[in-house]
Amino acid sequence: MATRLDVYKQAELHIGKSTITALTDVVEARYKFDQAWLGVVEEAFSEGDWNFAKKTSSITATAGVPIDGWAYSFDYPADYLRTVSMAPYAAWRGDFYDFADQGGGLYANTQNLTITYISSASVSDPTKWPTMFWRYVALKLAYETCEALTNGTTKQADLEKRLKKALRQAKSVDARNENNKRPKVGSWMRSRHGWGGSSSPIVTTLGGEIVPEEGDV
Fold first, then answer.
1. Which stretches does DSSP call E strand in the chain?
2. Residue (of 93, 54, 95) closest to 77 by Cα position
3. What is the Cα–Cα distance from 146 to 64, expressed in whole angstroms?
């Protein structure tokens, strides 16, 4: 379990420094990390549909007026950050496209939805981040601040090369703990249960790209 201070210390190691001992230290590295922190973290969360940050909730239509073409309007969960998938109910096994996630609103032609999404709760709490993810954030933080802290670009170029590998590793480890994607359904079962012509478990993905190979690196 890492803290923000642990991330800062790891970032300093990447750029060859060791000046931060507390988040209140009056040192240049701490100031630069503070300035870059929010953007670095938000970008890291946008780079994958991280299983450790996923939540699934059942939501019910509100009294809000839906946009044209849709019968019902919904509110996002309070800790909603980004949609991963949607279904009409939790046990749904087919594709589901009968909804709209646009303009800050969520709409459908069914009164109930099950939404899988990235929760904002994990964004502000590094203690909830898996090891490979927080180490990736530390490397990314070092990359973003390296030029300012070292007065050069040589180290930054090296960090850039390492970033892609670190992201692949973080996704690979995260994928091992995945429990939201369901096993593919065979054609016989789809035919028997009328699930349509696709073997995909749920899903419409929004707000980020999901492909079968994500994490399998």
1. 54-60, 72-74, 80-87, 99-102, 105-108, 112-119
2. 54
3. 48
**Cα–Cα distance for residue pair 171/163, rounded to 1 Å:** 12
Burial (Cβ within 10 Å: 0-12, 13-18, ≥19) of residue 172: middle
Predicted TM-score of the model (pTM): 0.74
With tokens 């939540």, the residue in question is 55
- Residue 30 contacts by C-beta under 8 Å, 6 or more apart in sequence? 8, 19, 20, 23
Beta strands in 19-111 (DSSP E): 54-60, 72-74, 80-87, 99-102, 105-108
* Site of tokens 């009968």: 98
Q: Compute how many other C-beta atoms are within 10 angstroms of the C-beta atom of residue 27.
A: 14
Torsion, Cα 138 144 150 156, to 10 degrees, reads 90
Chain segment 123-179, per-residue pLDDT in tens: 999 999 999 999 999 999 999 999 999 987 788 889 999 999 999 999 999 998 775
The shares of helix, strand and coil residues in the chain, as percent rounded to the nearest 5, are: 40, 15, 45
| Distance from C-alpha of 29 to C-alpha of 9, rounded to nearest angstrom | 10
C-alpha 213, offset from chain centre: 16
